[in-house]
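Journal club prep — side note

Before the paper discussion, L.F. wants everyone to see what a predicted structure for a comparable chain looks like in token form. Sequence:
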Amino acid sequence: MCPTILVVDDELIIQRLVMHTLRLLKVNLASAMDGKTALEIVQNTRPDLALIDINLPDMDGFTLMESFKTVPNMARVPMIAFTARNDPDDEARALALGAKGLLYKPFSTAELREIVQRFIA
């Protein structure tokens, strides 16, 4: 069975780039443009990994990571945050909320595939 990856990013071009890059890994993909939609998706689908942008329109990625912890089927799902922000506190905050890593935009497709493969292998 193919693993499922949830991609949450409000920038359509980034979301498409991430999804195109990950298709090469033969995974199922789900996507959301905001935190509310992501929360709706995980009510019915348990992803094996969640990639979460920190800058979302309705709630930030940190709030979404906290919210995921309250969804029973999401408690053990690894999360990777990504951001274009240059805030030195972002990585520590993401890790404190349970993220397994933080990617800074722009990231290479090889870097993205490498970190994702660590969690779906």
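L.F.'s comment for the group: Strands lie at 4-8, 28-32, 49-53, 79-83, 99-104. Keep this in mind when we get to the figures.
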